[in-house]
Amino acid sequence: MPLDKSVVSGSNAEALDAVLELFQSEPSSRLTFQQIAAKLEGVHPDLGAAVEQLVEKGLLWPAGDRRYALPSELGISAGTIVIRANGSGFVKTEGERIDIDARNTSGSLDGDLVMARKLESLPGEGRYRGKIETVIKRRRAGLSGIARKKGRKWVIDPVNPVLPREIPLSTISDTDISQGRLVFATLDYSGKKLTAELKKDLGSPTSPRALIDSVVLDHGFHDEFPENLLSMAEELASEPWVLNGREDFRELFTITIDPVDAKDFDDAVSLVIEDGVRTLYVHIADVAHYVAPGSGLDNEARLRGTSVYLPDRVLPMIPQVLSNGACSLKPDEERPTRTVVMKFDRSGERQDFSIVPSVIRSDRRMTYEEALDYLEGNGTEENLRQLFESMGVLSADLDTLRENRGALDLGSSEYRVVFGEDGWPEGFKPVPSDRAHRLIENFMVEANRAVADHCMWSDLPVLFRVHDEPVEISEERLVRQLEMLDISLPGGKVHNPSVLKKILDSLRDSPLYDLAVEYILRSMQKAVYLPSNTGHFGLALRSYLHFTSPIRRYPDLIVHQVLAMQEKGDIPLLDFGPAVVAETSNAAEDNAESAEREADELMAMLFLSRNIGVVFNGVVTGVKDFGVFVRLEGVPVEGLAHRSEILRAGIPFTESGGPYHEGTFLKVEVLAVDPMARKLSLKPVRE
Question: In CATH, what number does 1-73 get?
């Protein structure tokens, strides 16, 4: 992960640029401060502060003998460190991976931005052993964990198992805290040893709500908005709006389709057929009408980056008076929107499109279950039966075109937690990938790609959703992994996404499907936000962006704001550079996804803690000499069947894993669960 010079700022910005440009023009240079000053003599009086700031941010590095050089010339790279439970870790940079022993982490914690020095090459392309030189940026300001007494003092054992144990915990007095409570504490990095200060008692570590509270705080999220922003949002939500040049689509028959428990509705659709031409209207809530660029609400939305969806709550990107109120496309309520109007021929090819500010009045709020009922030919209302028949045909045509261009369809392997009356997780419900979900996905993809084409042609300062092809080393690993599932990758190459699609189609109803999806996802580069458009490999599209969810994603909101500027004849500009916003948006997305996975895993652990002795179906996901890792069917978690338990079950177990390999089906009994350590112990059941 290279450091962009946009991370440094200040009154000496001119000097920063000058020093960086000097070293970038002479990459191999190793210059003293006097030599830097001589080359830039009389131009920049703030050179001393500039050099110090560049070193502090990792853009320059001491090279010995009071000289400075570009870090890359010294074998030093910037990146985010990933720490394992045993204290070791690794840093991924562009095309490289630097493995870090536990003794060489230099006090860095999981997720910190660090400078890593390569010490020696390891087998495999782009692999090195190294050490952490310094921490450039701390990821976390605090952590949650179990408070306990050690001697006369208190310590905290973090909930996150990759963080160090027994961090000294300062309290005002022993009455502030009780042994074994789940608490939140802020971290102090200033001393020689990491310490923590008690801030909040979250409750019992066996409480589902308290555990999710801990995830929220661990990831730096906030439940509440500042009072001034809530007042601003309420005032904006109550202001009457006028048609003022908007296209009037209130007479169009319009519906929303969302999960049964949805609180905000940011997209609606209409379909009109005339003379064989199908006109699809995708209406998106005009959040930009309420959240102006540079406003306090906009700044807060940029900092949050995304709404976060946890098992028992949603942390919205914008205040609920807007997200669930004025911006939500509720039935029989007039709402300002931005509509993508797309015309399709009989085969489903898009012939024309336009993007217009609009106003709608939704006629019906439908759930996915109701929509599926109509798509399958059921349902009692004739107008809806006709509408869904036509929409179903268009969606099927779009499916065919998507398949013909070789797009990759990974489906869904997500679960929703089902809570019982006592607030305890009592099961997990897979998120469906049925025709109703597919229909909305197809229509939203078409709207997103149309807007992406417009923004690309107009050279607008937006963030594209970019997905690059897999790199060669990842392809080789994928070939080996699929071979363990008795699947061959033709030619050992991912020539296009359709190759992977055929593999997944063959496993669609197999318990191996989720495992194959995981292998494929790991082999592919992650889709990210970038200010430049390089195409989307997975969707097999030349241009793509996110436009259809401005209530919950900041990059979508930016697109709406930029389009609003363009519609007014203004030159679209962003207060912050697109590269900076892309970086913060990607980081926010990663943080939200990590929190969602962590919360789901904790709920799965709590669920299984009440199911000791219960037998589940599973599939082997990893083989080690000490045992096998098993993913349970219907529960989003993996556990370990230790070698000793395998042998105790009367099953011979070799160092190479025999009789198990990745993809082996087996039944396992739940032996023990430790949610705090994220440990699930399993025992194979001999059939």
Answer: 1.10.10.10
**Range(s) within the chain of domains with CATH label 1.10.10.10:** 1-73
User: Which residue type is seen at 364?
Assistant: R
First to last CA, the chain: 49
Quick: pLDDT tens for 60-79: 999 988 899 999 899 999 99
Q: Is the peptide bond before 490 cis (omega within 30 degrees of 0)?
A: no
Q: How far apart are CA 96 and CA 82, in angstroms?
A: 14
Q: Which value, in Å, is the radius of gyration of the alpha carbons in the chain?
A: 27
Please give the structure tokens belonging to residue 417: 């937690």
In whole angstroms, give the CA distance from residue 44 to residue 18.
Answer: 8
Q: Are 258 and 367 in contact (CB under 8 A)?
A: yes
Facing residues of 185 across strands? 143, 198
**Burial class for 454, CB neighbours closer than 10 Å (0-12, 13-18, 19+):** buried
Residue 473 three-state SS: helix
Answer whether 391's CB lies under 8 Å from 438's CB: no
Contact 3, 55 (CB under 8 A): no
CATH 2.40.50.640 fits 142-205, yes or no: yes
Distance CA 430, CA 415 (A): 4
Q: CA-based angle 90:555:243, to the nearest 5?
A: 170
373-396: b (≥16 Cβ within 10 Å) or e: bbbeeebeeeebeebbeebbebbe
C-alpha–C-alpha distance, residues 246 and 336, integer Å? 8
Instruction: Kindly give the interhelix angle for 382-404 and 435-458, rounded to the nearest 10 degrees.
Output: 60
pTM recorded for the entire structure: 0.88
What are the pLDDT digits (tens) for 601-630? 999 999 999 999 999 999 998 899 899 999
Identify the CATH class of 611-685. mainly beta
Phi, psi of 549 (to 5 degrees): -135, 60
Q: Give the separation between CA 325 and CA 235, rounded to whole angstroms.
A: 12
State how far the Cα of 532 lies from the Cα of 83, in Å rounded to an integer: 32
